[in-house]
Amino acid sequence: MRREDIKNIIEAIMFAYSEPISIGELNSIINEELSSKEIELMLNSLIEEYKENNRGIQIIKLENKYQMTTNKEYAGFIKKLLEPKKRKH
């Protein structure tokens, strides 16, 4: 499998799975002959791509796991979406 395909798979997994995920978990899902270092390099590449393009989402590292989150710069908009709707009488 091409490196770019694997990177896209990592991105898709992180988008669908909202919880933090470890490199080991990603490696077992992808099931390719990859070292942890290779997956870490792909994750770091994705992190940089999101930063460089100032995207609405980002990938962050939490201890030994990674998570896709919304960019805190846009938190106010997400908060509006998640607020309970006011009831109309």
From TrEMBL:
Gene Ontology biological process terms, A to Z: cell division; chromosome separation
Q: Does the keyword Signal apply?
A: no
Q: Under what name is this protein listed?
A: Transcriptional regulators (Ypuh-like)
Task: Report the source organism.
Answer: Romboutsia hominis
Which Gene3D superfamilies would you find in this protein's record? Winged helix-like DNA-binding domain superfamily/Winged helix DNA-binding domain (1.10.10.10)
The positions making up the signal sequence are none
For this UniProt record, give its keywords in alphabetical order, as a comma-separated list. Cell cycle, Cell division, Chromosome partition, Cytoplasm
Report the InterPro entries cross-referenced here. ScpB_csome_segregation (IPR005234), WH-like_DNA-bd_sf (IPR036388), WH_DNA-bd_sf (IPR036390)
Query: Matching Pfam families, A to Z?
Result: SMC_ScpB
Q: Does the keyword Cell division apply?
A: yes
